[in-house]
Amino acid sequence: MNTQLAREWIDNNQGRMCGVSKKIWSTPETAFRERESYEVLVNILKEEGFLVEERFGGIPTAFRATYGSGSPVIGLLAEYDALPGLSQKVSTKKEEVEEGAPGHGCGHNLMAAACLSAALALKEGLESEEEATIVLYGCPAEEILNGKGFMAREGAFKELDLAISWHPSSTTSVQGSPMTALESGEFFFKGRTAHAAGDPENGRSALDAVELMDIGANYLREHVTDDVRIHYQITNGGGAPNIVPDKASVLYFTRAKDRRNVLKTYERVKKCADGASTMTETSYELKSRGGCYEILINETLNTVMEEVLLETPEPVYTEEELAFAEELNKTSPSYERASKADDYESIKTKSIGIRRGFGGGSTDVGDVSHIVPLVMFTTATHNSLAAGHSWHITASSGHSIGEKGMLYAARSMVEFVRRVLEDPEILINAKEEFDRSTKDDKYICPVTDDMKVEDFLV
Fold first, then answer.
1. What is the 3-state secondary structure (H, E, C) of 101-126?
2. Which of 12, 114, 275, 276 would suit a FRET pair with 308, their CA atoms being 20 to 30 Å apart?
3. Does one domain contain both 12 and 104?
4. Is the overall model pTM greater than 0.70, yes or no?
C-alpha cells in the first residue's frame, strides 16, 4: 500500500470532505429517514469507482460499497442519523435552526464523512485491487440501537476480516470499555373502558397496569447487579381522566454489561408486566423493539490503534476555535469545578490511550464486534465539557473543530490499515483472540424476523 498517496488524497480533498460533513449536518434526518444523507454518500462512492449495493437488505437508507477483490477484507462503519429535538446553530448560545427539529447531537455527520474519506483514501493508496478489499457499510438508525442489527439479519459484516468504527467524542482514545448490551420492548396493555365516576367498577384500567408494571420494575432495581440499567417511557396514557383507559403502553430499555445478563434481567421485567396484568385483570401484548450486544473488546487491534493515535499528528487549533470551545464550556454546569483542574483544556488535544472502565451507554456497533474482530476509537471533535447528545455537540459538529477531529480520524484509519496490511500477524492474532472470546457465545441477532423497518417510522 502506498500510504503517501492515501495521505495526500486526504490533504487534497479536505474541503470536499468537510463539505460532505456540512451537507449532512445541514439536513439532519432521524433513524431510517436518512434519505438525503444516503444519497450524498452513495453518489460520491459511485463517482469514485466503488461498487455500491443500494438499499442493502431491503433497508431504504443502508448501503454496502466495495472496492478491490483481495484479502484481507476490511470494513468501515459509517453512521449518519441525527437525534430528534437537537437542532442547533453553530453558536455558543443555545439557538435552534428550527424549533423542535432534529440535529447532529452525536456528530454522525462527521462520522459519515470520516469513513468516506478513509475509504476513498485507501482506494487511492492500494497498489492494486488484489491487495485488499475495502467495504464501506452505510449504517442507518444507530440512535435507536438496531440499524446494524437489521443489516446483520440480512447477512452484513460476516464477509469482513476486521471492522473499524470511529466515533466523535470529547477525547481521543481507543474503546477499551464494552459499554452495555440492550434489549427493548413496548408493552401494550388492554383493559375495558368505563365512566371513571359513573361506573368505575366496570372498568379495567390499562393505565393502572402500566403504572403497576413501572412500580414493579422500580422495586426490581434493588435486586439486580450493579451494571443493570432500566429505563421506561409511557407512550400512551389514555385519552381523558374521566374515562377508564382501555389502552395504555410503555416502552422499556433494559441494559447490562453483557447480552446474557441483559436477557436474564429483561425476563424479570416481563414478569412485572405479568403481575400487573393479573392485578388489573387486563391483558398485554409485547412488541419487540430489538436490542444490541455489548462491544467485544479485541486487545490485539486496540494495541495497534493505541499506537496509531499516539503517533498520528493531532490537530492544531486556532485561537478562534479554542475560544469557541471555551465559550461552550462556560455554559456547562461543571465548568467552575472542571476549569480549575491542572489538566483542563477547552479541547482535549492528546490521546489518553485505551479507555477502560464501565460505560453505561450502548451502541449497535457491539453487534458487529460479535460477528468479526473490531476496533473502535474516538477523536476529539467538540469542547471538552460537552454532554453526550447535547446542543454543544450539534454546534461543534458543524464547526471546524469537528472537521479537524474528523480528518484526524480518517488519517488514523488509513494508518491503522497500513499496519494491518504490512504485518499479517496482527490479523492472525486478532482472529485467534476473537475465536477464543466467542467460542461459547455465538452471535444471535437481536432483530427478529418479524421486525420491520416500517415499525420504527411511526
1. CCECCCCHHHHHHHHHHHHHHHHHHC
2. 12
3. yes
4. yes
